[in-house]
Amino acid sequence: MFNRGEDVELNTQVKKLKTSLCLSQGSIIPAMLLTAINSDLPGLVSAQTTVDVLDSVYGKEVLIPKGTKVMGEYEASPGFGQERVFIAFKRLLFPDGSSLNIGAMPGQSQDGRSGFDADVDNHFLGMVGSALLLSAVSAGVSSTQSRGYDAQGRIHYGDALGSAAAASLGNTLGQIIEKNLNLSPTLNVKPGYVFNVAVVKDIYFNAPFGDPDFSSN
Q: What confidence tens digit (pLDDT) does each residue in 124-165 have?
């Protein structure tokens, strides 16, 4: 993890700042959700900045004004035990109609943890019900299959056909029920959730917001 060799010099140099109109890596963009999140299906997220975001160098120029829309995406089917929704924010829509693609910058809770705190529905009641139903179906199939022969070992064809049909139905129901047992949890986040977009790469601007040169053609 650590370099314990004798080389005590880094083979890097300080890079000159391109412009002071920069939002540096490690900065945050405070925002609030406008749309709800439900992890059953993937979807788009719309949020809005809650404060003016200033440049990282002097902290004087407004680069992202309050009210800027922040657009993102989230994936579906979270894993078992997952309690947070992971969002990638990709675009800023400024109040003057201009926009900026920002790649894929993660959303994080206000304490700096990646992802959003979510209300988790683990579908426990449905899973327990499915487990009980699967047990009942299995018991019913076993009971039906035991009736295909008489005491002398002769086949009762009517019972045998019924057993085969019951077995087929039991297998089909079993597959359906087992799918219900493997349901992923549903994660929900309500509108109004307050969070930060983590700036993972430097963002450079042509001019402060409101300046004629803010956006390029």
A: 554 444 444 445 545 554 555 545 555 555 555 445 444 544
Q: Give 21: exposed, middle or buried? Use CB within 10 Å, 0-12, 13-18, 19+.
A: buried
7-51 pLDDT, tens digit each: 677 788 888 888 899 999 999 999 999 999 998 888 999 999 999
Entry pTM: 0.70
- What would the DSSP string read from start to end of 152-163? TS-B-HHHHHHH
DSSP per-residue string spanning 23-68: E-TT-EEEEEESS-EETTS-EEEEEEE-SPEEPTTTS-SEEE-TT-
- Please check whether the domain covering 22-120+188-204 is classified as CATH 2.40.128.260: yes
Distance in angstroms (rounded) separating the CA atoms of residues 141 and 208: 73
Angle at 79 between CA 73 and CA 83, to 5 degrees: 75
Helix (H, G, I), strand (E, B) or coil at 14: coil
Between CA 84 and CA 104, with CA 80 as vertex, the angle to 5 degrees is 40
d(CA 158, CA 153): 15
